């Protein structure tokens, strides 16, 4: 006679629920592509390719999310973008 044993396990799943904010960069007629790219690389730690893609999206679409994260982490980065003459906000 064979006996099959059923094992029931309770699994507790913890999800990190946090609201991510975004830094949105807006197009302007003042800054050059090079300035935008260099600033994104310096402030947001973008690679050259990421920064260039963001600059192109901003140019053609009018805006682009350039960074996501916790609000407290984004504030100094957004401030640095603004200090560099770019138009950005945290949403």
UniProtKB/TrEMBL annotation:
Signal peptide: none annotated. GO terms for molecular function: peptidase activity. GO terms for biological process: protein catabolic process; proteolysis. Pfam families: ClpS (PF02617). The keyword Nucleotide-binding does not apply. Keywords: Hydrolase, Protease. Transmembrane segments: none annotated. Residues 20-83 form the Adaptor protein ClpS core domain. This is ATP-dependent Clp protease adaptor protein ClpS. It comes from Flavobacterium caeni.
